[in-house]
Automatic annotation (TrEMBL):
SMART domains: AAA. This is ABC transporter ATP-binding protein/permease. Keywords: ATP-binding, Membrane, Nucleotide-binding, Transmembrane, Transmembrane helix. It is a multi-pass membrane protein. It is found in: Cell membrane. Residues 336-571 form the ABC transporter domain. The chain crosses the membrane at residues 12-36, 56-80, 129-153, 159-179, 242-263, 275-299. Residues 20-297 form the ABC transmembrane type-1 domain. Pfam families: ABC_membrane (PF00664), ABC_tran (PF00005). The lineage of its organism: Bacteria, Bacillati, Actinomycetota, Actinomycetes, Kitasatosporales. GO terms for molecular function: ATP binding.
Amino acid sequence: MSVLLRLLGAGLRPYAGSVAAIAVLQLVQITATLYLPTLNADAINYGVLAGDTGHVLRVGGVMLGVTLVQMTCAAAAVYVSARTAMALGRDLRAQVFARVQTFSVREVGRFGAASLITRNTNDVQQIQTLVVLVFTLVVAAPVMGVGALVMAVRLDAPLSLLLVVVLPVLTVAMGVIFGRQMPLSASLQQRVDRVTKVVREQITGIRVVRAFVRDRHEQARFAEVNRDLLDVGLRLGRMQAFGMPTAMLIMEFSGIAVLWFGGHRVDGGGMQAGTLIAFLQYLTQILQAVMMAMMAFLLSPRASVCARRLGEVLDTSSSLTLPASPVTELHEPGHLELRGVGFRYPGAEEPVLRGVSLTARPGQTVAVVGSTGSGKTTLLQLVPRLFDASEGQVLVGGTDVREMDRTALAATVGLVSQKPYLFSGTIASTLRYGRPSATDDELWQALQTAQARDFVEALPDGLDAPVAQGGSNLSGGQRQRLAIARVLLARLDVYLFDDSFSALDAATDARLRAALAERTARATVVVVAQRVATVRHADRIVVLDEGRVEASGTHSELMHASPTYREIVLSQMTTEEAAV
Ligand SMILES: Nc1ncnc2c1ncn2[C@@H]1O[C@H](COP(=O)(O)OP(=O)(O)OP(=O)(O)O)[C@@H](O)[C@H]1O
């Protein structure tokens, strides 16, 4: 609850004017609401019962005016409340989005993409709903409740004693009903998360589902989480459905009691008929106020769960700490060095990298090879700080990457990952992602180097051909080549290619390497590859084995010095081919 209050307090500060306007509108509206039963009593007592039609008309006119004021203020209050809540929702979404943007892969992995999406949509929506409710009901409830109580006691103190019985009964009944809803609300949000997660996974993995004809299995998996959500939703719905009739029952019984006792008092001459009716209306208003306050309790547990979930995101700092005085200028930006680097994934027992040291200079191509799972991808990811090394240092241009300005690091180092991600748009917008100012000519040159020119030229719209989200309308090899062209356009000093040629046929791979060597002649290139042909001509080859550097050297040196390297090579070519 405290997180909710903190979020609302901070979030509503910019809208203090609107909040004040809502308070004033509500106050006028409630005053009018409280005045109406008194006017009604007056019309009955001194108009209807006295046979004075003129009085009825006069008071009726005033009642009409008061009602108009009440309706206008109520409508305006709802309008301003909705606007303020929407604005608050927009701000919250922007804050959460901005925070998630600072997260490293580690934090995104901790929350999970599905949960982050639910938090920034559904959870914010719940808070918005609560804010509207607070502004329209909760703000009004205490004023209306106390006001109606004072009016009722003023009208007839003895009859007001009934409230001593009715109010606790209603409060306890509602408290029990709403109290039981709290845990259900919390689990409802978790189940919404689970549905999002399964849907996301199934849509992303649709090709695998089709390939293995696992539609039924996936449907069953979805049905299970969907049913879980329905179960909790129904249980919550049942509690809510139970709440309203219970409240109505208590209100109706209270009305009957007022009429019963009040009727006797009217009979005995201790009370006027109009006063009894007004009293009944005040009683209804008091009970309504209690109900309204309770309604807030109904939504507040769910909203406070949502606020806690949003608070978790907003209070999470990126594990990639920013340096106090970031280095922006590098003397020799292409100089890459890893010094005794060790890395352990969060939660993992064993380190993935241990004591890895290597250097690469401008103009050099360093290849990293090793069996699958030996830590090659992890190693590359440490350079652009997708993760930070647990031990040792990664230096670019002689500066620890942790000391560098983020933008400067991004302008120096580019990574083409194993499965590159392309944003939706066109070929041109995809390529310009790293350098928006690139001309069409430059785009074609980069495509030429990446061996992607032919296929882009063959597309009906060329550079304007559409690219679907994730590049799903392109083949794996096309995606890889576009990603290579994209990074080349950014004109960097250090290029890291993580198995980026794996989806290319051997001939295209060879052409691409030749073109790349020309284009990146003055840059530092680190290539991770499974295919020996891709790496054998590298200036230096580093062999990783279970996270350690087993050996490093040229192809011919390693053929003698590294059993792991020899094994990899001979699994792909004959001894004669390897010796060439
Ligand atoms: N996000 C992660 N969380 C926990 N462990 C991970 C994570 N990513 C990779 N690992 C583990 O780290 C080890 C090294 O993975 P990495 O992807 O660096 O290997 P690789 O040499 O690139 O393999 P491949 O050649 O198959 O791509 C593996 O054992 C893997 O299970």
